[in-house]
């Protein structure tokens, strides 16, 4: 997750990693997806409620490239599960 200093335009950014659970199948006969990571950027925000390390998300938005990494700006999101902290 990235936070901007107060003197700059606010945005909140996180890199989402696509990880499959044991037993899940990759599409198209097990072929590796072209990207395993996605940068998600919310403009004009310094935090997004519920978005933290270990949260499983479903994202909906248009994908573009930023610094060679696929990125999504201001996506709609759904929190699917949270990692338990002991």
Short description:
The chain is mainly beta.
3D structure, described in words:
This protein has 86 residues and is mainly beta. β5 (63-66) and β6 (69-73) form a beta hairpin. The chain is built from 1 helix and 7 strands. The protein has one helix spanning 27-30; strands spanning 2-3, 11-17, 37-43, 56-60, 63-66, 69-73, 76-81.
Quick one: how many beta strands?
7
Helix content: under 10%
Give the averaged pLDDT, no decimals. Answer: 81
Main sheet specs: 5 strands, mixed
Order of helices and strands: EEHEEEEE
Spatial ordering of strands, largest sheet: 1-2-3-6-5
Structural class: mainly beta
Q: Give the count of helical stretches.
A: 1
- Rg, please? 14 Å
- Percentage of residues in strands: 35-45%
Low-confidence stretches: none
List the helices and strands and how they pair.
Layout: E1 2-3, E2 11-17, H1 27-30, E3 37-43, E4 56-60, E5 63-66, E6 69-73, E7 76-81
Parallel strand pairs: 3-6
Antiparallel strand pairs: 1-2, 2-3, 4-7, 5-6
Keywords:
86 residues, mainly beta, five-stranded mixed sheet, two-stranded antiparallel ribbon, 1 helix, globular
């Amino acid at each position: 997750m990235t936070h901007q200093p107060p003197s700059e335009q606010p945005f909140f950014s996180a890199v989402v990693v696509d990880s499959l659970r044991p037993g899940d199948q990759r599409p198209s006969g097990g072929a590796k997806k072209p990207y395993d990571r996605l940068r998600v950027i919310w403009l004009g925000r310094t935090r997004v409620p519920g978005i933290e390390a270990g949260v499983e998300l479903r994202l909906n938005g248009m994908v573009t490239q930023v610094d060679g990494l696929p990125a999504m700006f201001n996506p709609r999101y759904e929190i699917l599960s949270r990692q338990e902290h002991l």
